[in-house]
Design brief:
Elements lengths: L1 H9 L7 H35 L6 E4 L4 E8 L2 E7 L2 E6 L3 E4 H9 L1
Antiparallel strand pairs: 1-2, 1-5, 2-3, 3-4
Length: 108
């Protein structure tokens, strides 16, 4: 037991410069920022810009998969016509993309 205690005391962590660990932490934060946080904020800005540019007559698809044509925009709500004389009200935030975009993706 005494021999084990002596070996453990001798194999302690070396006392190096604290700047090495600080530099590693800064590098780790920079990697997370440039590879995860920054691309996500860019994508959110693009989505916000798309939703702000919606106009009456656009053909869109909702997050639930409903295709429709915008008939009216009331603040954060959108009235979609999904069939002849069939209209539904959805939140602007649930609009996923334009129907033209989804048709192009299916063709590829």
């Amino acid at each position: 037991m005494a021999l084990l205690t002596i070996l453990l005391q001798q194999t302690g962590t070396p006392q190096g410069s604290p700047w090495g660990s600080i530099l590693m932490m800064v590098a780790l934060v920079a990697i997370f920022y440039f590879f995860m946080i920054r691309p996500q904020t860019k994508k959110q800005k693009e989505i916000r810009k798309f939703r702000d540019s919606l106009s009456v007559g656009d053909k869109v698809i909702t997050a639930g998969g409903i295709y429709g044509k915008i008939k009216e925009i009331k603040g954060e709500d959108v009235i979609l016509e999904i069939a002849d004389n069939v209209r539904i009200r959805v939140a602007k935030s649930s609009i996923y993309g334009t129907a033209a975009d989804s048709n192009q993706q299916q063709a590829q």
